Amino acid sequence: MNFRMSRRRRIFEGKGKVLFEGPEPGTLVQYFKDDASALNNTKKGTVTGKGVLNNRISEFLMSKLNDIGVPTHFMRRLNMREQLIRQVEIIPVEVVVRNVAAGNFAKRLGLPEGTVLPRSIVEFYYKRTDATEKPLVSEEHITAFGWANPYELDEMMSHTLRINDYMSGLFLGIGLKLIDFRLEFGRVWDHDELRIVLADEISPDNCRLWDVKTNEKLDKDRFSEDLGKVEEAYQEVARRLGILPEGGNPVTNANTNITTINER
Question: How confident is residue 37, by pLDDT bands cut at 50, 70 and 90?
Answer without folding.
Answer: confident
